[in-house]
Amino acid sequence: MTEQQLVNTFLQSRNERDFHKLYDSYKLPLSRTAIYLCNHDLSIAEDCLQEMWVVALNKLAQFEWKSTLKTWLTGILINIIKRRLPRENLSKPLPTDDGIIQYQPEVLQAIDLKNAISKLPRGYRQILVLHDIEGFKHKEIAYLLAISEGTSKSQLYHARRAMRNYLRDSKQKIYE
Amino acid sequence: MNSTDKLSDVERKVFDELRNESHLFPRQKVVSRLKQEGLINSSKKHWHNLAAAAVIFFVGISLGLLYQFKAPAKDTYNYMLVLYEDQEFKAGDPQLMFEEYSKWMDSVEEMGVAITGQELRSSSLIVNPFGYEDNPEITVSGFFLLQAASITEVKTIASESPHLTYGGRIEIKEYMKR
Questions:
Q1: What's the average model confidence in pLDDT over A126-150?
Q2: pLDDT tens, position by position, A98-125
Q3: What contacts A96, CB < 8 A, 6 or more positions away?
Q4: ipTM of predicted assembly, 2 dp
Q5: Contact B30, A3 (CB under 8 A)
Q6: Which of B15, B159, B160 is opposite residue A133, by nearest beta carbon?
Q7: SS3 B82
Q8: Going along A94-168, which residue ranges are E strands?
């Protein structure tokens, strides 16, 4: 069943059974995005997801299919998370590249990468999760975050470097 | 920008691992909230109506056929759902889980499908040609037996099982009849 068929079937019946099909099609990527963007606070992530479905079902009949449904749902989720999480000081300078050759380990554990991502400033974390974990293209990220494609590329560049810097620093701390 | 702008093979592999990780929240909480908001209707009424219609229909024709056909025994199950758990399975509150599984079994019975099942203890011991393995990564945590009309029906039933919402996996097996 295509995305549109799933949505149309649900809109016609509005029943629980058809909602389950819709929900199950997107539960994995949306849960993952919520958890990363809420920095592994499962309680906030679950609330935000719930809120996302309330907003989405209220607007679903007006959805114009200018993006995929997953992108649209992710956009709603990002906005809800932004409102929900305490504001970061956006004027605070982001960590800059220190000029050292980028650290690229030969062995990397998922847990180390997770830790590094969780320590990134929200903007960097967001772009890394959307691009490198969820596989969104820069065009889609630009739509999701209301930025230009160029900004998306540049933020990803800085986010990856910041991630590697955190990985390098944490490795150094182990050996100190 | 230099070559380090791109992910290395090692980084890409670990990002892939993260992409395959899953944490699932119980679907029922979302459903309850959406019902409260009036955004979805319960499908229970729908199934009650269908079940009632089916009962009237079958009672009618059964009266005529009662002595000609032997009704299938309740225990002639033809499919099995094997429930697996691995490290991705995140158990919830036991009472809530019990209620969810019971509710799911009720809904299966409302569809006219006979169902029975058995929960299994989490401890597991695998016997292999070289000895024993007492901490397997994937274990069978229970099973359900179904008397269903088709594999399509079984797939629908399995896909609605609360076991999936906790990150478990279900294998559908059909009985072999000789």
A1: 93
A2: 555 556 666 778 888 888 999 898 889 9
A3: none
A4: 0.81
A5: no
A6: B15
A7: strand
A8: none
